[in-house]
Structure formats: C-alpha cells, structure tokens
Specification:
Elements lengths: L1 H16 L13 H34 L18 H29 L12 E8 L2 E6 L4 E4 L1 E5 L4 E7 L4 E4 L7 E3 L5 E5 L5 E7 L11 E7 L1 H14 L5 H7 L8 E3 L19 H21 L1
Parallel strand pairs: 1-5, 4-10
Antiparallel strand pairs: 1-2, 2-3, 3-11, 5-8, 6-7, 6-9, 9-10
Helix pairs in contact: 2-3
C-alpha cells in the first residue's frame, strides 16, 4: 500500500512540476478568466459532492450487508428488482449531465464573445502569430509590432487574432483568458479584457518542438495613459520591420524581446479573408461554376 501511494504522489509531483504555476487560473484578472475559473470550481465542487454521496452509500452498504456467521448451506432468498431504485439511479446521472452541459455551453458562449461589460466598446485588435519558438504581436491600429511581449490597456476589450508560421501552437494567458490554437492556414480569435494593470505570464501550452518551453511572453496591462505613452515611445525609437529581417525572425531559435515601428502584415498578411488557407465557400462556388461551364460546353457541342 505504501508503495502504491508513493507512486501516485511521485506522478502528481511530476505533473505539477511541468507547470510554472498551475493555480494561476484561480486568480483571474479579467471577466473571461473569471468565467473559466468559476466553471472549473463549480465542476470540482459538483464532482466532490457526487464522490461524497457515493462513498457514504458504499460505506453504508458494506456495514449493513456485511457477511454474517451463517451456516455453510445458507441460501439467500430471491429478491425481485426495485423499479423505483432503477429509475433513481438512471435519473440522477442524467440530471448531473444536463446541469454540467448547460453550465459548459453557457460559459463557452460567454468566453467566445466580447465581455458583456465592454460589448459597446471598440476592441483593440492584436495579431498574435507564432513561429519556432517565439511570438509575434502586430498592432494594425498602431502600426507597430513586438516580439515575445505584448502590452495593452486595461478596461478595453481585446481581440487576439491567432495564427502560426510553424507547427500548431496554443496561445494562453491563464489569468486573462483560456487557451486556443494558432494554426498556419486560418485565424482563430480570443476575446478578453483586463480589470487590473499588471504583468501576466503568457505561454505556448502545446508541444511544438524542442524549445517550446521557451515560448513564454509577458502580457503587460497598462493604464490608458501608459499605453498611449508606450506606443508613442515605440514610434519614436524603434526601427522599421523589413521583410528580410522578419524572415530571419522566423528561423527556428530562441529570441529575446524585439520592437518595431511597422508590422509584417504589410508584406506577409494573416491567413484570413482572401489569404485564408480554407476557402470552403469559394471552392464550392468554383465547383458549381466549373460544372456549369462543362454543362454549357456539352450543350454547345
């Protein structure tokens, strides 16, 4: 028994050691992260309550129906099944699944949209692209770009547009939002807002090669005044990002922070709209047009 618990403890320590701080999700600093944290806590409490009831009933059954010192030839009487017991142990799991499903769907819809408190405000759009093994943050509204760090103002909705110049990565700022994949042929979006200025850890939570553990970045939430001052300082002091230098940045390797007064979107646009890798609707239209052309040609012949 001691050996069994030792193995379990070692396994848990090994898992937790792979996380910088697994409890950051329970210290949310924005509405989207708060929704995720509340949903996780609700699920944990509900599962704990279920386990408590199961263990109490298990102990009760062991005590009440334990074996007695009866004769060797004792044969218990035949008992028919209970209709109400069967209804009960089918109905309770169904209710549990329905409750968890409703909570999950509602919280998913909430975190996948602009935070309600900021629904009428114009979001700040930031393109976050990954490469081996770094993050590139482009600000089309400001005309600037950063590498391995991102700044944005508090109390304003933020839209991160995610994509990748390499393998699939997973963008995650635990205290501000959930995680979502960044892929090479399409753009995915994370909505968030920050209530409290401060520095928050962001990372790639999806294995993408030998140096993926170094794909961490700082997400710094500033006041509106501090953010405007930072943007102006970047425009006054940082160099312009050229296509040649951007191609060098895409080369595999670990890199520190970089700042530029232009974005790579000018010469290497994000895979969205006409530049997207997925053109399901367009492909369908082209198929119909081709079929129509072939049909017309056949009639003409």
């Amino acid at each position: 028994m001691k050996k069994k618990w030792l193995l379990i403890s070692s396994f848990l320590l090994m898992i937790l050691s792979g996380c910088d701080n697994p409890l950051l999700i329970f210290d949310p600093k924005g509405p989207q992260a708060k929704t995720i944290s509340d949903t996780i806590l609700f699920s944990i409490l509900m599962m704990a309550a279920i386990l408590f009831v199961v263990y109490v009933l298990f102990a009760f059954m062991l005590v009440k129906y334990r074996a007695s010192k009866l004769a060797d030839d004792y044969e218990p009487p035949h008992e028919e099944g209970s209709k109400w017991l069967e209804i009960t142990w089918i109905t309770i799991p169904v209710i549990i699944v329905v409750i968890l499903s409703v909570v999950t769907v509602r919280s998913t819809l909430e975190v996948e949209s602009t935070p309600k408190a900021y629904a009428n405000e114009e979001p700040l759009i930031i393109y976050a692209s990954s490469s081996n093994w770094k993050w590139h943050f482009s600000y089309p509204e400001e005309g600037i770009e950063t590498v391995n760090y991102v700044n944005f103002p508090e109390d304003r909705p933020i839209e991160f547009k995610l994509y990748s110049y390499g393998p699939i990565s997973s963008f995650w700022i635990p205290q501000l939002a959930g995680q979502k994949y960044a892929m090479s042929d399409m753009v995915t979006t994370i909505h968030l807002a920050a209530d409290t200025p401060g520095s928050y850890m962001g990372k790639n939570s999806n294995f993408s090669g030998k140096d993926f553990a170094h794909m961490e970045f700082e997400a710094q939430v500033l006041t509106a005044k501090q953010y405007d001052e930072w943007v102006q300082d970047v425009k006054d002091t940082a160099p312009k990002l050229t296509e040649e230098e951007f191609n060098q940045l895409l080369e595999p390797g670990v890199l520190g922070r970089k700042t530029y007064t232009s974005t790579h979107l000018e010469f290497s646009p994000a895979p969205e709209g006409e530049n997207a890798g997925h053109h399901h609707g367009d492909d369908m239209d082209m198929t119909h047009e081709t079929e129509s052309d072939m049909h017309g040609e056949h009639q003409h012949n």
